[in-house]
Structure formats: structure tokens, C-alpha cells
Amino acid sequence: MGAGNSSFTVAVWSKIYDAKVLKSAVSSIHESLYFAEDVNLCMKFFFNEYMLKASVRPEAYYVWNLGIGFASSDKSDLALLQDYKYVKLAADYYAKQYHISDAIMYRVHLESIGLLNVAINNLILENTQRDSVERIISEISNYEFIRTAKNFIASHETQKLWDGLRFMISDYTPGEYYDWACAHLKKRTFRQKALKVMRKIKLF
């Protein structure tokens, strides 16, 4: 959930925080989060009553070459989707409260759809049993933030929907999604796929 084409990202390490605002934000972070705590912190920080202004600097004061920001542990994509059950609903709340533009929310919802696809592709590449993958598809597709994302994208007809996205926001069955994912599967690592999805929606 970046800021369009700017250099602003949700990475915690790339910012200097006002201590008063940070303490207020940290105290309200959802304790169950495993991967998306940085996203949650950014929302709590920037939509905070003590937050008065922010500025972005173009200089890189230090650089780490450690991947794209995702942990490398197994099933990290599924763990992130679990976190998003809370984080994406919080994003919707702030979007309505602060009148965030539909263009930004389109990208937020598009990331949800893309991450589900990444997770299912990863399971298939790992030769996970079909019935297990279909069960996960059924469970995740019924998460409120996924249903919200599908409905939001489908309702914005001004955006051009490519064939893959048109399918991913449809009323597919778990079996249909599995077959579609297999037919469009490309052998990329989770990091490569996640990076491609996020570049497409301009998160990086």
C-alpha cells in the first residue's frame, strides 16, 4: 500500500518518527500480526490525531540488498493473507473516514487479489495436494477483505480489466480457480512473483 508513484512505502525502517506519535501508534497495533505489522503501524501512525505533517526525502541514507521486503520463511504468503484479514479492513475504515481516493483504494484491493493468486500458485508449485489447495482457496476467497476487493474492482468499470483479473474477481469455485491457476502457472519463486505483482500496482 504505497503512495502512487512516490518513494513513500510502508517499510518501518525507512522513516524517522516523532516519538509522541509513534508511542500512540505502537500502543494500538494488533498483537496477532506476523508479517503485516509494518502496514498496521503506518496506518496507525499517519491516521493519528497527533500527526500534523510528513515529508519525503529523495536521498538514500543507507541501502540493504536483502530481497524485496518479504520474509523468506515457508508459507509467508499465506501468513500475510492471514494478517490482511485485519489490516485490509482497517485500511477500508481509514479510507472511508479520511475520504481516500478510489484510485488509491483500487490499488489496495488489487494487491489483495494478486496476493491470493501468488499464494495459490506457490502451493501448486510445491506440489500440494489438490484437495488441500481447493480448501485453502475456498477459505481465503471467503475472507471479508477478498470479497470486498472483488466487489470494489468489479464496480469500477472505468478501470480496464485484463482477462486474468476478470476471472479472479468472478464467482469462481475452488475447482475452477485451481484449474485456472494451473493453466496460467509460471515457474517463478514467491519473491519474483510478489515483486512482479507489486510493481504492476506500483507498490515498489
Could you name the key traits of this structure?
56% helix; 9 helices; 204 residues; disordered N terminus; mainly alpha; single chain
Structure explained in plain terms:
Helices cover 56% and strands 0% of the residues. It is an all-alpha fold and 204 residues long. Helix 3 runs antiparallel to helix 4. It starts with 18 loop residues before the first helix and ends with a helix. The model is unreliable at 1-5 and 68-73 (pLDDT under 50).
Offer a quick outline of the entry:
This protein is mainly alpha-helical. Helix content is 56%, strand content 0%.
Largest sheet: none
What is the N-to-C order of secondary-structure elements (H for helix, E for strand)? Answer: HHHHHHHHH
Number of helices: 9
Q: Give unreliable regions as ranges.
A: 1-5, 68-73
Structural class: mainly alpha
**Helix content estimate:** 55-70%
Q: How much of the sequence is in beta strands? A: under 5%
Mean pLDDT: 78
How do the helices and strands line up, and which of them pair or pack?
Elements (H helix, E strand, L loop, with lengths): L18 H8 L10 H10 L29 H22 L4 H24 L4 H12 L2 H12 L7 H6 L5 H10 L6 H11 L4
